[in-house]
Hints:
Blueprint (H helix, E strand, L loop, with lengths): L4 E6 L5 H10 L3 E2 L5 H10 L4 E9 L2 E4 L20 E5 L11 E4 L7 E6 L3
Parallel strand pairs: 3-7
Antiparallel strand pairs: 1-7, 2-7, 3-4, 3-5, 5-6
Keywords: Disulfide bond
Pfam families: Lectin_C
InterPro entries: C-type_lectin-like, C-type_lectin-like/link_sf, CTDL_fold, Snaclec
Amino acid sequence: xxxxxxxxxxxxxxxxxxxxxxxxxxxxxxxxxxxxxxxxxxxxxxxxxxxxxxxxxxxxxxxxxxxxxxxxxxxxxxxxxxxxxxxxxxxxxxxxxxxxxxxxxxxxxxxxxxxxxxxx
Length: 120
């Protein structure tokens, strides 16, 4: 796992771009996830909630808000993506989707968002 600082923030009533802006104000970005260990770690941070992560789609191309390579994914099935954003399912009441990534409209709000910044 990377040596980065992760923080779950309240995203109630905030869309993807608003939560990315909040992360940027703290010197980071919505989190990128590059392996199963990071996915599991972030899942523990958001236990019981869904959370925006930093993967967005410009057409069919997936990009992380921090500019890192799109080298890992954990989507449930094959996502339908056109200008959409990604959240991680941490709610236990959705057993088929728990711990997977889901694509949704970027203007919606999720319960949490996870920020990631490099250590100082």
